[in-house]
Design goal:
CATH topology of the largest domain in chain B: Rossmann fold
Oligomer: heterodimer
Number of helices of chain A: 15
Structural class of chain B: alpha/beta
Radius of gyration of chain A: 24 Å
CATH superfamily of one domain in chain A: MetI-like
Membrane topology (chain A): Multi-pass membrane protein
Distance between the termini of chain B: 61 Å
Keywords (chain A): Cell membrane, Membrane, Transmembrane, Transmembrane helix, Transport
Strand content of chain A: under 5%
Bound molecules: adenosine-5'-triphosphate, iron/sulfur cluster, magnesium ion
InterPro entries (chain A): BPD_transp_1_N (IPR045621), MetI-like (IPR000515), MetI-like_sf (IPR035906)
Strand content of chain B: 15-25%
Family (chain A): Belongs to the binding-protein-dependent transport system permease family.
Organism (chain A): Actinacidiphila acididurans
Helix content of chain B: 25-40%
Largest interface: A-B, 28 and 36 residues
């Protein structure tokens, strides 16, 4: 397991470096300069030169990259061109809100998808299975924003039960103080990932149920519910865990959309605004944060896999 | 009152395509301490009978009214689920075929063995754990207490099967159903597991139902035989009576179609043509009629009833008398295999339509492979506009082949690179028209060696030479040209054919790769090939999944023949096939060899199959060739203790021979090929090992013409030392 973890961590570090190089290159090769975006299109050449000099934009790209990495390692991502605040402060403020939104919806999605998938596998090809399959595919094929808007239309505009806007409080504590506003964004994201998860769980549980050891468990005299709990569940979750790690980017995309629909100031909105205003420091930092989060997500999935699967835990190499 | 009394057991399974009549009117009784065998080909309802007794039918399955299963007088059919669960794993337990997939990979074996104890016995966890230790001890797993916390993947196949048996025995059941418990295991481990089952049965006074397709296992391990065919009992008798006086044609043919060690390999195996009927819609009358050589009009209309006396019953209108006589081994004249009384023709239906002799061959006249030793190497070279190799040069020669695979996974710093010693210095040669058989336990490097021979893998050292030309020295066109002479046929007829290609395309592919002929000629060749392996031409437009396993293996052979190769390396060509289909494919292989003067390297874990096909045999152990010689020398006069052990482990379908068996199968399992033992690699399992075996690697020594073995203390006296034998197994001409 140690060797396995070392190997995975090593790979994760390499991926993060790759993400940094790639985003840095992409942003700096893009036409249109930060100066123009910040100072307006009618800025004079001198003012642009001054801006570039002040922000180090006139130096060669490799040098700029080295500086960026050095500062990033100290938690210094520079100052936002447009918001005139330290980037690290912006991220520190918004990241926890996303963690809350995504964490809640993933947990909720799993809590529903696992029993649903196993149930469908056990009752394979029954009417209930078919209905749930149709529901899952409908959810799966609906665009995220459409979903959000639909829920807003129903629960806020029609029924006036829930606010259409997410809580605007700055701190996580503040948000939790008024959880009603969180309901619609969380439900939207949950439904979006629920569909995929339940499909994975279903197909994985179907193949587990066909395994010889399930028959052996029944031959021991275990009741069906015991067979499911003790021998089917864990083995069915193994492949799902890996997939969970791989879907992290899709979940982040979903978050960006949910944030704009519900006006929830998280990383997604920050990133979106930075991209339109060519706010390089914010763009770089938020790309990096999302990249790292994705890598950490799949690393966590690998660790979970290792814990669930003794074949990896006891890998003696 | 019998312990288990099964009457008129009938099981149906409703599927999307209709109702499968899996078990039909099966009755038997079983006493404590007795072993009953359910014998037959795959799909004949053996497992379904076992599962019906356990009440463990698949979805859609049900036991028909009128069926009765009484355990000690208590009716189990119709028992509420709760009550039935109390019987399962407690009074009746079951062991399944594949130990690799029968254990939950995420739980320790201790927990899995304790599970049924906790469930049925209302005891503490600690007590259940103690019981697990006892059960593991009972099944002969060394250091059971330390093994408790192991996960399944940390055990070998044989150890896992022991753990599964321990699990079944944990509650001391009164009936144990063992469903093909050794089919997935090596022959050596099979012998160990069968001995174990016999000893625990005796010790616990259990009754046992042993399900098997293997007539050898039947002869040595069963008291009463029940032959099943298409869901019905075809014949039942005490084992001795059965083997000496079988009355049902199916029993007779089933026994006759098994290649066996104590039988002369000359000639063709009698086969059972065709396949068992589809149980969705079984034929009226006798279910065997379609394949039975004695079938009459009555058989096709009137269902034969199971009748007889003295505990010997059979369901047949025209019973036979006893088995097909077995040709005595050794020097029997070829015509000794001619059908005796009660014997039918030996041809099988598909190849009976074949043109008698190589009508489609692109090559010069072939000769029967066994016309007294190797053929002159020039017979086939003519049409290939290649220089005839010098006389005495073997067709294919492997010299000192070495292949080592790095161990997968991360290499921790400071540790030496670790390798699997898959093939370690193997040399042998193959003459034109000859068959060389390679046997050994799983993981001994047989398949790796096969891949090296055909160039699918490159050796780390050593050479493979065809007609004296080192294949490793060839490049580009010359190499491709040579490659055409070497082809491989794989074990699994399901995965070795591309499922998305039509058979016609599969057969044309090698021709296209080597740009042989025009498109029209390629199509014609594909049609020829189909005829040659006994398949209908319309099969060219079908996909592989539309064929049965045996037919797919025929397609595999046809593909291998497409480029008229001279050597075919067949890796476990019949292991995945059922007994009767296996005989058909073996006959086909012999026929093709005779027609084309082909040379075969046949790789198999099954000594009887190798004995049947091969002129010469090489025995592999842990990457080394420990003995080579003529099939007869190796099987009748083995010099190496490992060869003798392998031979002793092979079950012979003759109860008297089984009882009279002298030698012992090797104990234990092969060690890790990453760290093979010093000196003689077999020494950790060898009954004759001495100190010298650990220090000094035995060099091959000659024991007769073409017969060599590498052992310090061989079972027979070697020939006087020859000065030039160093390092290489001597290749003295055969016979
Ligand atoms: N591609 C590979 N990479 C790593 N190890 C391999 C590879 N192929 C084979 N081995 C290892 O080499 C050894 C010999 O394997 P091989 O498959 O040749 O044996 P075998 O006798 O044919 O076994 P079986 O009867 O089970 O097919 C085994 O320990 C196997 O795990
Ligand atoms: S009843 Fe007829 S068809 Fe059936 S086995 Fe006997 S002879 Fe053959
Ligand atoms: S060399 Fe020794 S250990 Fe090896 S087979 Fe011969 S007697 Fe046994
Ligand atoms: Mg193999």
């Amino acid at each position: 397991m140690t060797a396995y973890l070392l190997r995975r961590t090593g790979q994760a570090v390499v991926v993060v470096i790759g993400v940094m190089v790639l985003t840095f290159a992409l942003i700096h090769f893009e036409p249109g300069s930060a100066a123009r975006a910040t100072l307006g299109t009618r800025a004079t050449a001198e003012r642009i030169a001054v801006f570039n000099a002040a922000n180090g934009l006139n130096r060669p790209l490799p040098a700029q990259f080295v500086t960026f990495v050095k500062q990033a390692l100290q938690g210094d991502f520079g100052t936002s061109y447009s918001l005139h605040q330290p980037v690290s402060a912006l991220i520190a403020q918004r990241l926890p809100r996303d963690a809350l939104l995504l964490g809640l919806s993933i947990l909720l999605a799993l809590a529903v998808a696992v029993p649903m998938g196993v149930y469908q596998a056990v009752r394979r090809d029954s009417a209930a299975d078919h209905v749930l399959t149709v529901v899952a595919f409908t959810l799966y094929s609906m665009p995220d924003f459409f979903f959000g808007l639909l829920l807003v239309a129903l629960f806020s505009v029609q029924l006036h039960i829930l606010p259409s806007q997410a809580p605007q409080a700055v701190s996580v504590g503040g948000i939790l103080a008024d959880p009603r506003g969180l309901v619609l964004p969380v439900v939207t994201l949950t439904l979006v990932s629920l569909a995929g998860f339940s499909r994975y769980v279903r197909s994985s549980a179907i193949s587990t149920l066909a395994q010889d050891y399930v028959l052996v468990a029944r031959a021991k005299g275990l009741a069906e519910s015991q067979v499911l709990r003790r021998h089917v569940l864990r083995n069915s979750l193994l492949p799902v865990v890996t997939i969970l790690g791989l879907t992290a980017p899709a979940i982040v995309t979903g978050a960006v959309i949910a944030e704009s629909v519900f006006n929830y100031p998280g990383m997604g909105l920050l990133f979106y605004q930075a991209a339109t205003s060519k706010d390089y420091p914010v763009l770089l930092a938020s790309t990096l944060v999302v990249g790292v989060a994705t890598v950490v997500g799949s690393l966590l999935a690998d660790v979970a896999y290792g814990i669930l699967d003794p074949r990896i835990r006891y890998d003696r190499d | 009152m019998p312990l288990l009394d099964v009457r008129h057991l009938t099981t149906r399974i409703t599927t999307g395509r209709g109702t499968v009549r899996a078990v039909e009117d099966v009755s038997f009784t079983l006493e404590a301490g007795e072993t009953l065998g359910l014998v037959g080909e795959s799909g004949c309802g053996k497992s379904m009978t076992g599962l019906s007794l356990m009440g463990l039918l698949p979805p859609g399955g049900g036991i028909a009214p009128g069926s009765s299963v009484r355990l000690d007088g208590r009716e189990l059919v119709g028992l509420p689920a709760r009550e039935l669960r109390r019987v399962r794993g407690n009074d009746i337990a079951m062991v399944f075929q594949d130990p690799m997939t029968s254990l939950d990979p995420t739980k320790t074996i201790g927990r899995q063995i304790a599970e049924p104890v906790l469930l049925h016995q209302r005891c503490s966890r600690a007590a259940a754990r103690e019981r697990a230790v006892e059960a593991l001890g009972l099944v002969g797993l060394p250091q059971p207490r330390r093994r408790l916390d192991d996960y399944p993947h940390q055990l070998s196949g044989g150890q896992r099967q022991r753990a599964l048996i321990a699990m079944a025995l944990a509650n001391e059941p009164r009936v144990l159903i063992a469903d093909e418990p050794t089919t997935a295991l090596d022959v050596t481990v099979q012998a160990q597991i069968l001995a174990l089952l016999a000893s625990v049965r005796a010790r616990l006074g259990m009754a046992m139902i042993l399900i098997t397709h293997d007539m050898g296992v039947t002869a040595g391990n069963i008291d009463r035989v029940y032959v099943m065919y298409a869901g019905r009992i075809a014949e039942s008798a005490g084992t001795d009576r059965f083997f000496h006086d079988m009355r049902h044609p199916y029993s007779q043919r089933l026994l006759a179609s098994v290649p066996r060690l104590d039988q002369d390999p000359l000639g063709e195996l009698p086969t059972i043509p065709g396949l068992p009927p589809d149980l969705l819609d079984p034929p009226a009358g006798c279910r065997f009629a379609e394949r039975c050589p004695y079938a009459t009009q009555r058989c096709r209309t009137e269902e034969p009833v199971l009748r007889g006396e003295h505990g010997h019953k059979f369901a047949c209108w025209h019973p036979v008398r006893g088995p097909v006589p077995v040709a005595a081994p050794r020097r029997a004249p070829a015509d000794a295999t001619a059908p005796g009384p009660g014997t039918a023709t030996t041809g099988d239906e598909m190849s009976a339509t074949l043109p008698a002799k190589r009508a489609v061959s692109a090559r010069g006249p072939g000769q029967p492979a066994r016309a007294g030793g190797p053929l002159p190497a020039t017979t086939t070279a003519v049409e290939r506009d290649e220089p005839a190799p010098a006389a005495g040069v073997p067709l294919l020669e492997a010299r000192d082949l070495v292949r080592e695979y790095p161990v997968r996974g991360a290499r921790l710093p400071g540790r030496a690179r670790r390798v699997v010693h898959a093939v370690s210095g193997v040399s042998f040669s193959l003459a034109q028209g000859e068959t060389f058989g390679l046997v050994g336990e799983s993981g001994c490097g047989k398949s790796t060696l096969g891949r090296l021979l055909v160039g699918l893998d490159r050796p780390d050292a050593g050479t493979v030479a065809l007609d004296g030309t080192d294949l490793g020295s060839l490049r580009g066109r010359a190499l491709r040209r040579r490659r055409r002479d070497l082809h491989m046929v794989f074990q699994d007829p399901f995965s070795s054919l591309d499922p998305r290609m039509r058979v016609g395309a599969i057969l044309r592919e090698p021709l296209q790769i080597h740009s042989v002929g025009t498109a029209g000629e390629q199509r014609a060749r594909a049609a020829e090939l189909m005829a040659e392996v006994g398949l209908p031409e319309r099969g060219l437009d079908l996909f592989p999944h539309e064929f049965s396993g045996g037919q797919r293996q025929r397609i595999g052979l046809a593909r291998a023949l497409a480029l008229t190769p001279r050597v075919i390396v067949a890796d476990e060509p019949v292991s995945a096939l059922d007994v009767s289909v296996r005989a058909q494919v073996l006959n086909l292989m012999k026929r093709l060899q005779a027609a084309h003067g082909l040379s075969y390297v046949v790789i198999s874990h099954d000594l009887a199959v190798v004995r049947h096909l091969a002129d010469r045999i090489g025995v592999m152990y842990l990457g080394r060739l420990v003995e080579t010689g003529s099939a007869e020398d190796v099987c009748e006069r083995p010099a190496h203790p490992y060869t003798a052990g392998l031979l002793a482990a092979v079950p012979v379908p003759d109860p008297a021979a089984e009882r009279a068996k002298r030698g012992h199968a090797p104990s234990g399992e092969p060690p890790d090929p990453v760290a093979p033992p010093s000196g003689c690699r077999f020494r950790t399992r060898c009954p004759l090992a001495q100190a010298r075996c650990a220090d000094e690697e035995p060099a091959p020594r000659a024991f007769g013409p073409g017969h060599a073995a590498a052992c310090h203390f061989p079972l027979r006296a070697p020939l006087p030392e020859q000065p030039d034998a160093a390092g290489v197994v001597p290749q003295v001409p055969t016979k």
